[in-house]
């Protein structure tokens, strides 16, 4: 072991019961009955991680939530975990007999990105005044996994004599000495699983989905089909727009042509040469009649008689006005003469 890995922690990629029971991953024999039982179940293949009918959903989109309060319900847990993404399924594990909560649950999200967000941000948060831990679904994603009821798992208490290490909550300490691979091979014990050394402040990444060639072909086929659908949709939309534009342009041209032709017809009807000739003939005939009437002797006599009568009436009105004006002046002068005479008589009497 190199000295650079002394201050680091070790995260295993697969489950090993003896290593989980060791504080630094260097143990080669089980140190308690729980570890021995887990080793027997692992070697005999007594546990099937995919045989549980209650386990549903995509394991790559599922997180494990532990250390829950026994008063936490599905509604409270769903409300708390919905902060990190869209919850698709939720299973709060309960006791078969009593129905009470066992203190852990499995939450499935719609996408793997939402699952990784909850895995990173929801760890060591509080739900109902209880600090929870969040981990990925090791039951289906970690090879060789053995549950706690069969002596495995990652939990344990020192008082019970079963101390477990591993996972993101209690990672393995960096071994102080090199792993004795020769002794393990001589005793017939499988070596500890491979893993990675990381800093204590780094967050271990959950396993990613392995994309095989079939998945790649399917994804490429799906992408090609989606691209074809998008292209067909775009082409259909463009064709619809072109048809609409052509129809609208045709309708506009037809409307404009009809209105223009109607206006031309109306103008032609109104301003036709026949109508113009008739109107000109009517006006010329009327002008001729008026001109002939003016030149006729009867029309001249009538006009002279009218002018004489108008002059006579005008003269009589003038004479009348002048006569009334003269009378008025004569009356005013006689009145003044009378007043003067009366004033002279009065003076003589005095």
From TrEMBL:
It is found in: Nucleus. PROSITE patterns: RRM. This is RRM domain-containing protein. The keyword Nucleus applies. SMART domains: RRM. Residues 326-342 have a biased composition (Basic residues). SUPFAM superfamilies: RNA-binding domain, RBD (SSF54928). Residues 156-172, 212-325 have a biased composition (Basic and acidic residues). It comes from Hevea brasiliensis. Keywords: Nucleus, RNA-binding.
